[in-house]
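Dear V.,

Thank you for sending over the compound details. I've combined the ligand you provided, flavin-adenine dinucleotide, with the protein sequence from our construct and run the structure prediction for the complex. I'm sharing the raw inputs here so there's no ambiguity about protonation or stereochemistry in the SMILES, which I know was a concern on your side last time.
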Amino acid sequence: MTKVVVVGGVAGGMSAASKAKREDPSLDITVYEKSGYISYGACGMPYVISGQIPKLEKLLARTPEKMAERGVTARVNCEVTEVDHARRRVTVRDLASGKTFGDAYDVLVLATGARPVRPKLPGVDLGGVYTLRQMEDAATLQEAVARGAKRAVIVGGSYVGLEMAEAFSEAGLEVAVVERLDRLLASFGPVPSKLALEELEARGVEVSLNTEVLAFEGEEHVRHVLTSRGALEADLVLVSVGVRPNNELAKALGLTLGPAGAVVTDAQLRTGLEDVYAVGDVTAVHHLVTGSLAWVPLGDTANRQGRVAGEVIAGKEARFRGVVGTAITKVFDRTFATTGLTPEAASAAGFKAKSTTTESRDRAGYYPGRHPIHVTLVWEEGTERLLGAQIAGYGDAPKRIDVVAALLFGRASLRDLADLDLAYAPPFGGVWDPLLVAANVALE
Ligand SMILES: Cc1cc2nc3c(=O)[nH]c(=O)nc-3n(C[C@H](O)[C@H](O)[C@H](O)COP(=O)(O)OP(=O)(O)OC[C@H]3O[C@@H](n4cnc5c(N)ncnc54)[C@H](O)[C@@H]3O)c2cc1C
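Below is the predicted structure of the protein with flavin-adenine dinucleotide bound, written out as structure tokens.
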């Protein structure tokens, strides 16, 4: 019987374990997870903290008990501390008992994910200075809110920071966001950056751009965030300045690392080392627009990679083709989406890029409840190959990004987009869909 050990039990690891078991029930699979939970929707945590989702447990997709019913052993509070690949053994520390034990494997899957960057600033270890990645973090933030925190400062204006600005605000806190760059949501391009700022300010969130955090001050608990533009009062601080791959085991195994130190794999999620696979946020991915390796840590990618690795481990043919960098986020009523490259990223990747932004409406002009929708298209001058798109709008309207994401998989052109037969009825858009409007303007 082939023994599979999976390190990390969230999106990538549990997808790999579940799929492998479904495809080949004879596999003996054990998942070791350092935290107290497996298989949860980390992406839902902001909506629990806002109070929109009544309790954290709602995010749990599977428990160790449910996995046991499916024939997969999942052990929480168990950290894999060492891998001896020559002997095919892992060393595991049971964090509850403090005891260490060993386990053997034939196949190893590294699904160790990523962790938040915690900058080494003075006062960063004070009470009330948090990061958000795991269920335990979300529970701590929920408790801080329940204890009556009045004012939250968020360090970092990326999508997680802004989702949390909304969450704290919905939970009744005053919120300030501090961002060192001159814009928010930098990876979503200039129009979402500007509109997200407008939305936050309209909702009473104080935003400081071009502002560096210098220190956190307080006795035992944070009271002020000292920035390059003065001090901000805080009962709690969320540091959300990016993540880094948990690549320690990969490094110790001597695996090839790529961008940001993420593990390089082939399309079957194999690392260079025989019978060692890697999936999820710990891996680098092939970016289908640039043709290069990139680090794009996202939950849907981790799930898809896990599924492919599971199939391959079970002896099936499967391939992870790569990503085009599609993402979507909501900031209060506004929704922002991106796929492929922003104008800036396209130029940085060496493309002779052109872009245009059009504003139209997400329903027919005469239909009630319509909202503006901004579509930015990015393409290569000369070939007119589509390189990316960003959409800013309301509700589900920016989900149109998926049309462009699909086109990017096929290296389509602006003309291919303009020629598409898209669905139309007045409650869903104009007779000219906002994507077609944008493509036609770009082709003029
Ligand atoms: C607030 C928030 C919102 C998000 N929203 C979205 C979203 O809307 N859309 C989206 O696509 N993505 C979103 N993400 C990102 C998404 O959650 C991650 O991309 C996804 O969880 C990655 O899955 P993973 O399995 O690769 O890694 P992780 O979720 O990081 O899981 C890895 C697990 O491995 C465990 N581990 C690490 N080392 C060891 C070890 N040595 N032994 C045992 N266990 C170990 C860790 O404890 C961890 O639980 C969000 C993330 C956060 C924090």
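A first observation: The chain has a mean pLDDT of 97.

Warm regards,
I. M.
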